[in-house]
Write a structure and sequence with these properties.
With about 425 residues, the chain is mostly helical. The protein has 16 helices and no strands. Helix 5 packs antiparallel against helix 16 and helix 6 crosses helix 10.
């Protein structure tokens, strides 16, 4: 039998008074924010396209925001270390290095939820390519040509030396010939892009492709972090030689871009980043010649169909064409006293150049944060010692040959530009 509560002079003493206070009377109760199939099917035309764009944005947003946050935090932490803690004009640690290491720490400790994958893939693929292409605005066609002519013989010698050494090491260590070929082209030409382009041409297995990609990723990441400081120690007084060293000694385009940006931020040398990218893009063009050569070396039943499926546009990345197009655009704008025949004022033209240059740096910084977030070190354990030994030897070969040639021919090469 319940106890009847005695009337009280205080109306707010009733414990039942606020029982339904959170009922939100009058507010619609949304049981499901997602649309029904009937609602989706009824939408067409521009509404359907807008809906698809909004959905794509929702899928990309988490990864984009995470990579952007790491890049922004890296910049802020770098300034705090340099100006705040040490009272120096510049930080001893580059923002890009902080972003990469932060991404590695997150990926290899707490892990990366699947919701971030689409956005990070976008940053690493699209963002990187946009950043590299926009770097062309910093150079005229003549400057690209000058750097390319100086770097060309070194690129050829580094490619040849890497190919010979890797092929020899592959035989000595009894590795599959196709695995050695993938490591060789990945090291000598354009990293994972070359591996993906060559693998179907030579009939490489999925395991061989994965091993080659893992090897290039590991040693390319180490080179990204170490080579800018090695370059400064060897060629610190010459940004051109430092840039050519980074462009010839590091494997993947993303890794060269990250190393050049790290060098620029650490040692205030934007020309080194530009020289590194011109050299690396020159290396990338050799993939067009390597595809048919590899096809002849590994020709066999069923491979001709793979060769026909290998697009030369895929072998020649569009961001290379974009870089050259931006250099042509820069050259055209610089002609005469008024940019584009007076269409823009000189001040507006310089502002546009500065804005595009800054945008390229932002794209590269976000892409480098994605590199850290996308590198799962535990997966590299399955490679085994022999592929790692070949990858290490290949990396040391291209780096050593590049360093020796640049130290021997440096003064003469610098006089050509």
């Amino acid at each position: 039998m319940g106890v009847t509560q005695k009337p009280s002079g205080d109306p707010y003493s009733n414990p039942e008074l606020f029982r339904f206070a959170d009922g939100m009377e009058g507010v619609p109760d949304f049981l499901d924010l997602a649309e029904t199939e009937a609602e989706r099917s009824s939408r067409g035309g521009w509404r359907a396209r807008g809906h698809e764009a909004l959905q794509a944005l929702g899928e990309l947003a988490p990864g984009l925001l995470l990579a952007g946050a790491l890049a922004f935090a890296g910049s802020g932490l770098s300034r705090a270390l340099g100006q705040g803690l040490l009272g120096a004009d510049s930080s001893p640690i580059s923002p890009i290095l902080i972003a990469i290491m932060s991404g590695l720490l997150i990926r290899n400790t707490i892990g990366l939820p699947k919701i971030f994958e689409r956005g990070l893939q976008f940053c690493l693929r699209r963002g990187l390519r946009i950043g590299v292409a926009l770097l062309g605005i910093k150079l005229s066609v003549s400057a690209v040509g000058d750097i390319g002519l100086v770097a060309l013989p070194l690129v050829v010698l580094c490619i040849m030396s890497a190919w010979v050494v890797v092929r020899f090491a592959t035989r000595v260590l009894s590795l599959p010939g196709r695995l050695g070929a993938l490591i060789a082209v990945g090291t000598a030409i354009c990293g994972n892009t070359a591996i993906v382009a060559i693998a179907p041409v030579i009939g490489a297995s999925d395991d061989e492709t994965s091993y080659a990609v893992g090897t290039i990723t590991l040693f390319g990441l180490l080179a990204l972090i170490l080579h800018p400081f090695i370059a400064h120690a060897l060629f610190g007084s010459d940004p051109l030689l430092s840039g050519i060293f980074l462009g010839t000694a590091i494997h993947d385009t993303a890794q060269v871009a990250g190393a050049g940006l790290l060098y620029d931020q650490q040692f205030s040398s934007p020309y080194t980043l530009e020289a590194a990218m011109v050299t690396k893009l020159l290396r990338n063009t050799f993939i067009v010649a390597v595809v048919p050569i590899m096809a002849l070396l590994y020709s066999g039943p069923g491979l001709n169909q793979s060769i026909s499926r290998t697009s030369f546009l895929k072998a020649m990345p569009l961001f290379v064409i974009g870089f050259i197009a931006m250099a042509i655009f820069r050259t055209w704008g610089d002609l005469g006293p008024e940019p584009f025949g007076g269409f823009m004022s000189p001040m507006q033209w310089q502002s546009l150049i500065g804005g595009l240059s800054e945008l390229s740096v932002v794209c590269l910084a976000v892409a480098m944060a994605s590199v850290g977030l996308g590198t799962h070190l535990a997966r590299l354990r399955v490679l085994g010692l022999r592929p790692l030994a070949v990858g290490l030897l290949a990396s040391l070969t291209v780096g050593g040959v590049s360093a020796v040639l640049l130290m021997s021919l440096g003064p003469w090469l610098s006089s050509l530009v």
